[in-house]
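Data follows
____________
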Amino acid sequence: MFFLLVIPIGLLVGFLLRGRLSGLGKLQLRWLPLVLVALVIQLLIFPLFTSTAILSFAKAPLHVFSYVLLAVWIVANARIVPVALLGLGAICNFSILIANGGLMPASTNALQKAGLFHVADQLMQDGAYANLIQMSSSTRLNFLGDILYLPKWIPFSSAFSIGDLLILLALIWLIVKGMRIDGKRVSKAA
């Protein structure tokens, strides 16, 4: 949920740096529908505002497939530097997902500090919740798991990974970069 902070933060920084919304349309991102399909898949397989997901089957394979779609989009747009950083974050997340059967190890401590007590309780009780698995000595690449957190007093607080942080920063950078595109640079590049 903390990814919802990307747009307001990106826009705020963009405006502070004298950017314009009109520049966002000039980014020339290729194959953008792939991102939308990947996001729809993730919205369907993860509980968002309820305790259950819309699709309750094949969550791990669909999660991995959504990352494959994102990887294709990243490769198609890697010429844009913030997208390359986004790719690094995605590689971090994809690596840990593959190493843990399509699930993301999460620290119950980080979840509790983020105020997500019900998720932490579910992990401690069942060992898994949505796309998360309880972090333990049997999970792999724990340093790439959901070990970071936003405190519960921050809107959309959550536990998140290093990969998520890189993706968040890359998306903010991409918004700012787009807002700072002016007409002269676009016409010269075209």
About this structure: The first helix runs from residue 6 to 16. Strands lie at 104-106, 128-129, 132-134, 148-149, 159-160. The chain has one domain: 2-189.
